[in-house]
Amino acid sequence: MPLQTVEPRRLYRKIADQISVLISAGEYAPGARLPPERDLAKQLGVSRPSVREALIALEVEGLLDVRVGSGIYVTDPAKRRQRNALQGDAGPFEVISARALIEGECAALAAKAASPAQLDAIREAHDRVVRESRHDHNPLVADRLFHLRIAEASCNSALVLAMQTLWDQRMGPLYRSLERKLEHPKMAAETVREHEAIVSAIMRRDPRAARGAMRRHMTQTHNRYIKEWTAGK
Amino acid sequence: MPLQTVEPRRLYRKIADQISVLISAGEYAPGARLPPERDLAKQLGVSRPSVREALIALEVEGLLDVRVGSGIYVTDPAKRRQRNALQGDAGPFEVISARALIEGECAALAAKAASPAQLDAIREAHDRVVRESRHDHNPLVADRLFHLRIAEASCNSALVLAMQTLWDQRMGPLYRSLERKLEHPKMAAETVREHEAIVSAIMRRDPRAARGAMRRHMTQTHNRYIKEWTAGK
DNA sequence: ATTGGTCAAGTGGTCCGACCAATTGTGCGA
DNA sequence: TCGCACAATTGGTCGGACCACTTGACCAAT
Fold first, then answer.
1. Rounded to whole angstroms, how far apart are CA atoms A35 and A41?
2. Who among A57, A91, A162 is closest to B165 (CB)?
3. pLDDT tens digit sequence for B16-28
């Protein structure tokens, strides 16, 4: 029964999605002003109330900023993140220190309890980091995946959640400027070496060594941050 | 210049907040149907389009569920949480285990670095738990505050964030049924005793004892859960 | 030339009334 | 008793109207 008619989503949702696509496609840059409601209605072939409903939905979602008498503007992504969920004021060094604790334990638990499939997933994620760092590719996504796989292998989804929460803090103010600097090939090579120590310890089922390797990795990351931090000042 | 006129919020926002209050006040229980849009408009003295805008805002926020031709229903809190951000499937026992790790470290750091003001805050939060558990008052809020104050005293806002994230998991499916049972006076007395051990260790600046006391508290909580879990089955 | 105020165009805010479409309950008929 | 059709209810969409606020241009006084 693949013929099921498309669920008739409500009009305001379709319009909202359409506008949302235009924004993410770069048609309207952050801070830019959208056409007036009346023009949008005409362009999209719908009534103004429907456009208004869509705009309100996007406003609630934090994508748009409506200013009376002036116009409708695309919310700056930086501002948007502040609205979205828990954004503690945790600085990079606090996050690193907390990650050392949590991810260290994740690594130890992974060494103790990871299933063969999870070990494969860790190995695969590690390989991807190696591959991408060789090609000068931004390894941030792969790096996150590597740490996530280890957390998952701990078999405690609460730890996974905590780790993800901390990782998302990277979007904070100071963080981004630091991250940019750490894409140098030399830094990447160090990271890979430390990752290998972690993988090795987990593979040979040595919880203490895994915890130690992860904590060492965090300490070294901390040092790299310090280095860039002082250099940047 | 305290004369700044109140920023005139838009009508749909006011209406949405008003409806939101009615819901959280229990006027409309989860799953209940709201009055028709037309009636709401008349009751609130506004037009139907404005009511619709408010309803769409609340729908986007996940508070309402609109069914064409049928009516507007209050979203079940269980469903709502699924939509809202990170809601891992972390069960109570996983959360407890993760909290033992994180809050244990928080307690140790608090013993090491808490300021006098923070120590006072911990003491005060503890007193409140004692007071409310004596009066058969639901001590959940006070209990959270107690643990939060200790986390704050760790001087690491990343740990505070992680702890809050885990604590919010309590709203999960299994959790609630367990929580209800644990309000018995006897349970409360045990909790207070364990809390006192934690406070005592932090006050005498003994990190190892503080970590141990916190972990023991978590272990005991774990045992209480187990007891209710097996009894309930 | 600069400053200040006025005013008009543009834009979102709100409202009304109407009609359409989906749902749901009811009552009639087989 | 069962099943179907009808009608009331309810949300969905529309067009138009008027109001309030913002903005920028224009003009007058300095």
1. 10
2. A162
3. 888 888 887 778 8
ipTM of the complex: 0.59
Query: How far are the Cα atoms of A65, A160, B5, B100, B219 from residue B94, in angstroms, in the given order?
Result: 40, 10, 50, 10, 12
Q: Which residues, in sequence order, are CB contacts of A111 under 8 Å at separation 6+?
A: A201, A202, A204, A205, A206, A207, A209, A210
Q: Across-strand partners of A64?
A: A74
Q: Is the pLDDT of residue A20 over 80?
A: yes
Q: For residue A75, give the 3-state DSSP assignment.
A: coil
Averaged pLDDT score across all residues of chain A: 83
Confirm whether any atom of chain D, the nucleic acid strand, is less than 7 Å from CB of B77. Answer: no
Query: Which among A185, A177, A107 is positioned nearest to A139, based on CA atoms?
Result: A185
**Cα pseudo-dihedral B157, B160, B166, B167, rounded to 10:** -150
Report yes or no on whether pTM surpasses 0.80. Answer: no
**Which strand (E) or helix (H) includes residue B89?**
none
What is the C-alpha separation between A133 and A143, in angstroms, rounded? 10
CB-contacted nucleotides of strand C (7 Å): 10-18, 21-24
Q: Nearest by CB to B165, which of A86, A101, A156?
A: A86
Query: What domains appear along chain A, each with residue ranges and CATH number?
Result: 11-82 (1.10.10.10), 92-232 (1.20.120.530)
Q: Count of A–B CB contacts within 8 Å?
A: 108
Contact B158 A89 (CB under 8 A): no
Tokens linked to B77: 């809190």
Task: Pull the structure tokens for residue A79.
Answer: 């501002």
